[in-house]
């Protein structure tokens, strides 16, 4: 997950990379794991920090080489 290198196919989103890494995107206030629901940027359940920028939607962001993605932020 965080700080873990992941290989994804060309054109994949950050959401795909997080899913392949095998962890939840966020946790609810009571500790339940959350994941993307809509896959099109409407639900905001896939928010991550990318290269220091918080609250980015992983399902709407193309994965690229060398990204630093932190989940559950």
Keywords for this structure?
single chain, 73 residues, 21% strand, two-stranded antiparallel sheet, alpha+beta, three-stranded antiparallel sheet, 5 strands, 1 helix
Description:
This protein has 73 residues and is of the alpha+beta class. The protein is built from one helix and five strands, in the order H-E-E-E-E-E. The strands form two sheets. A three-stranded antiparallel beta sheet has the order 4-3-5, covered by helices on one side. Strands 1-2 form a two-stranded antiparallel sheet. Strand 1 and strand 2 form a beta hairpin. It is globular and about 35 Å long. The model has no long low-confidence stretch (mean pLDDT 87).
Would you summarize the structure shown here?
This protein is of the alpha+beta class. Helix content is 11%, strand content 21%. Strands 4-3-5 form a 3-stranded antiparallel sheet, with helices on one face. It has a two-stranded antiparallel ribbon with strand order 1-2.
Task: Assign the structural class, choosing from mainly alpha, mainly beta, alpha/beta, alpha+beta, or little secondary structure.
Answer: alpha+beta
SSE pattern:
HEEEEE
Question: What oligomeric assembly is this protein in?
Answer: single chain
Shape: globular
Percentage of residues assigned to helices: 10-25%
Cα-based radius of gyration, to the nearest Å: 11 Å
- Low-confidence residue ranges: none
Mean pLDDT: 87
What fraction strand?
Answer: 15-25%
Give the terminus-to-terminus CA distance: 13 Å
- Helix count? 1
Question: Largest beta sheet, briefly?
Answer: 3 strands, antiparallel
Strand order of the largest sheet: 4-3-5
């Amino acid at each position: 997950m965080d700080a873990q290198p992941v290989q994804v196919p060309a054109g994949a989103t950050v959401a795909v990379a997080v899913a392949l890494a095998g962890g939840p995107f966020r946790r609810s206030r009571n500790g339940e794991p959350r994941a993307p629901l809509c896959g099109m940027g409407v639900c905001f359940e896939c928010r991550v920090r990318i290269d220091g920028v918080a609250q980015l939607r992983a399902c709407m962001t193309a994965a690229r080489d060398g990204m630093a993605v932190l989940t559950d932020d």
